[in-house]
């Protein structure tokens, strides 16, 4: 129903100030129609502010919001092609499930029969048909959020905004609901914009996502892009579990960029970036790619290795984290799949070698 | 005790004593309510069927006092004072509830209670003075009439606003408006803030938000405030005494007059009827709105 190239949300130079506090600074962002888009970031980073700006609950201090090509920057919520699912269990406490879902349609003065049939269809879609007559206080958290989804979707808005919709649910339920949300979005085919601070939730549902922190848009991309090839140091620090080394560019060679950490020099592929000698940069590598080499095991040419003093092992079930300290005192972590045998045991204070594939290192200029 | 170790076990006897004492503490309010509320209430009913004597009454059973009430102008006065009280409730609601909603919605959270506190200020002045002060405002040569005459809005003074039911209603609204503001303010606690965002999102116009959402959620609190005003309108003798006239006598004044005439059983009968009216109203309200909800705002 949507053109593949159609843009649902186009935001440019969007800022929001609360007095002297800049909640959002010059954000440019575009979201394709029919996409499941996630705004991910730490609490207080400005992602909810961005969502509420899209929904029209607050007015921008500067910048422009186009929804399906129409400038809605100064429009109230009900004049926008959006509908909102709120964080907490925001339902009308004095209305039944069916009345909650149907209230928006009642406001539009649709005929009673049409309201009833659309509410029925919606309850079917969100799996609440059996609970149509229940009051909100008699529902579980997950059911209440489904009612909210129904209330928003029944209006057939083009863009659904979800403000931390799963934050109040327990971990197991959140996982299930994540997949359900994803499938629901595929079924209805409209654009979902979902705010969360939970990485796993974001990666489960997102077609594309944006990292938002300190009022700025840090980086956008698919979950896989951001996990495997983050451009910014912040992204590497925020997503997954990365070892990050701060250093200075000491030379540019055909093999890549030499980054001097003080105790070792790493040679990293620039990935199209153009650092200059003397720049302060960072290098990151995912901890699951790092290995602690066994005694007598020598690193081959494809591996980057550094000496370290072994600290401790942290058993996490699937993986075991081996924590050691580098010559400059920084920690380095290697995550091995737990083997549960002697080959994975190291002595504290032992001098060990940590190694990882050279090609998997990433250079961050900022 | 001074140097006793904190880990030393407390003797079992002392624990038992403590438990018994704390249980006794809960009994205190019950005893208070029995002695100062239930007992006088029961006595009111008992004394209303006693026989009247010259200066007091003597034990017996007669419904003479009730007969005296129901088959005289008193019943008519009682019913019309119920009417006037109802009007006061409606006027107070129309004037007062929007104030409560305004304070909740538009005043910053930290300042809300201070604003509400302003409505307590009039209560620092004695009720008699407050009500009496209305006379020079409402009377024939009072402030309202003088201003309207001078402005040429009216050609002769309005006499319908003092020593009439209208005067009593004005006085009741003046005196009891703060109660609907308080009750409304508390009732709005049952209306969560997010409700207004949902309504914005759905595009609900203001009157629909009010009718569909605020009113049903705040109903128990509004009802409680309304009952309070209604009952006071029936019972406070001072208002019709100072502002009312021959056609504006309420139950409180009927009882007061009966006491002046040393007809104690009649005074008790009027009080008992008033009490029954109140209990009936509360029962009705409870059936309609579940008044316990006032004490447990929905989260």
Please tell me about this protein's structure.
The complex is a heterodimer of chains A (366) and B (299). Chain A is of the alpha+beta class. Chain A has two domains: 7-228, P-loop containing nucleotide triphosphate hydrolases (Rossmann fold, 3-Layer(aba) Sandwich); 241-364, Nucleic acid-binding proteins (OB fold (Dihydrolipoamide Acetyltransferase, E2P)). Chain A contains eight helices and 20 strands. Chain A has helices at 47-55, 97-107, 112-125, 141-153, 171-188, 199-205, 223-228, 233-238, and strands at residues 7-18, 21-32, 36-40, 62-67, 70-71, 82-85, 159-163, 191-196, 208-213, 216-221, 242-253, 256-260, 265-268, 280-286, 291-293, 303-315, 319-325, 331-337, 351-357, 362-364. Chain B is mostly helical. Chain B has 13 helices and two strands; from the N terminus they run αββαααααααααααα. In chain B, strands 1-2 form a two-stranded antiparallel ribbon. In chain B, helix 3 packs parallel to helix 8. The A-B interface holds A 55-57, 76-79, 82-84, 86, 88, 90, 92-94, 103-104, 107, 137, 151-152, 155 and B 192, 194-195, 197-198, 200-205, 208, 212-213, 216-217, 298.
What is the topological layout?
The complex is a heterodimer of chains A (366) and B (299).
Chain A: E1 7-18, E2 21-32, E3 36-40, H1 47-55, E4 62-67, E5 70-71, E6 82-85, H2 97-107, H3 112-125, H4 141-153, E7 159-163, H5 171-188, E8 191-196, H6 199-205, E9 208-213, E10 216-221, H7 223-228, H8 233-238, E11 242-253, E12 256-260, E13 265-268, E14 280-286, E15 291-293, E16 303-315, E17 319-325, E18 331-337, E19 351-357, E20 362-364
Chain B: H1 12-48, E1 51-52, E2 57-58, H2 64-70, H3 73-106, H4 109-118, H5 127-132, H6 135-138, H7 143-151, H8 165-187, H9 194-202, H10 206-235, H11 238-243, H12 251-260, H13 264-289
Antiparallel strand pairs in B: 1-2
């Amino acid at each position: 129903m949507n053109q593949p190239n159609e843009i649902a949300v186009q935001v440019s130079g969007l800022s929001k100030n609360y007095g002297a506090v800049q909640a959002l600074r010059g954000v440019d962002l575009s979201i394709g129609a029919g996409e499941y888009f996630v705004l991910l970031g730490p609490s207080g980073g400005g992602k909810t502010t961005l969502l509420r700006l899209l929904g029209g609950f607050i007015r921008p201090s500067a910048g422009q919001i186009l929804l399906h090509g129409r400038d809605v920057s100064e429009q109230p919520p009900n004049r926008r092609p959006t509908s909102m699912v709120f964080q907490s269990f925001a339902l009308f406490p004095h209305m039944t499930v069916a009345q909650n879902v149907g209230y928006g349609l009642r406001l539009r003065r649709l005929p009673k029969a049409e309201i009833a049939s659309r509410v029925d269809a919606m309850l079917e879609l969100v799996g609440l048909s059996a609970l149509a007559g229940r009051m909100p206080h008699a529902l579980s958290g997950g059911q209440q959020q489904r009612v909210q989804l129904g209330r928003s979707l029944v209006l057939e808005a083009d863009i659904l905004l979800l403000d931390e919709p799963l934050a109040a649910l327990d971990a197991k339920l959140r996982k299930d609901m994540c997949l359900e949300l994803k499938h629901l979005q595929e079924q209805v085919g409209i654009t979902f914009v979902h705010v969360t601070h939970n990485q796993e939730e974001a990666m489960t549902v997102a077609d594309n996502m944006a990292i938002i922190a300190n009022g700025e848009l840090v980086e956008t991309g698919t979950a896989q892009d951001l996990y495997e090839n983050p451009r910014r140091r912040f992204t590497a620090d925020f997503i997954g579990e990365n070892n990050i080394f701060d250093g200075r560019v000491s030379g540019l060679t055909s093999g890549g960029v030499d980054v001097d950490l003080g105790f070792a020099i790493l040679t990293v592929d620039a990935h199209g970036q153009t650092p200059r000698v003397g720049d302060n940069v960072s290098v990151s590598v995912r901890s699951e790619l790092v290995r602690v080499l066994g005694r007598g095991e020598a690193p081959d040419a494809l591996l980057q290795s550094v000496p370290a003093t072994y600290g401790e092992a942290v058993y996490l079930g699937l993986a075991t984290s081996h924590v050691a300290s580098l010559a400059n005192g920084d920690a380095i972590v290697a995550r091995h799949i737990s083997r549960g045998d002697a080959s994975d045991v190291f002595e504290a204070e032992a001098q060990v070698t940590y190694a990882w594939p050279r090609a998997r290192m990433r250079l961050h200029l900022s | 005790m001074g140097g006793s170790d904190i880990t030393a076990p407390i003797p079992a006897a002392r624990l038992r004593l403590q438990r018994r004492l704390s249980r006794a503490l809960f009994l205190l309010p019950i005893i208070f309510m029995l002695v100062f509320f239930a007992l006088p209430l029961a006595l009111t009913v008992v004394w209303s069927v006693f026989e009247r004597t010259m200066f007091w009454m003597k034990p017996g059973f007669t419904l003479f006092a009730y007969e005296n009430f129901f088959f005289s102008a008193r019943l008519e006065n009682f019913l019309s004072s119920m009417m006037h009280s109802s009007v006061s409730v409606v006027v107070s609601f129309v004037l007062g509830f929007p104030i409560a909603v305004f304070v909740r919605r538009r005043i910053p959270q930290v300042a809300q209670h201070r604003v509400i506190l302003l409505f307590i200020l009039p209560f620092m002045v004695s009720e008699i003075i407050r009500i009496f002060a209305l006379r020079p405002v409402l009377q024939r040569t009072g402030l309202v009439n003088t201003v309207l005459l001078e402005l040429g809005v009216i050609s002769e003074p309005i006499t319908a606003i003092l020593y009439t039911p209208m005067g009593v209603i004005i006085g009741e609204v003046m005196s009891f408006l703060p109660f609907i503001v308080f009750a409304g303010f508390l009732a709005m606690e049952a209306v969560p803030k997010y409700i207004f965002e949902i309504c914005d999102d759905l595009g609900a116009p203001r009157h629909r938000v009010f009718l569909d959402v605020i009113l049903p959620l705040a109903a128990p609190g509004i009802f409680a405030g309304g009952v309070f005003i209604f009952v006071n309108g029936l019972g406070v003798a001072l208002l019709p005494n100072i502002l009312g006239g021959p056609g504006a006598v309420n139950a409180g004044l009927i009882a007061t007059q009966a006491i002046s005439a040393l007809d104690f059983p009649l005074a008790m009968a009027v009080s008992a009827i008033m009490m029954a009216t109140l209990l009936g109203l509360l029962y009705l309200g409870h059936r309609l709105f579940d008044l316990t909800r006032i004490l447990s705002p929905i989260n």
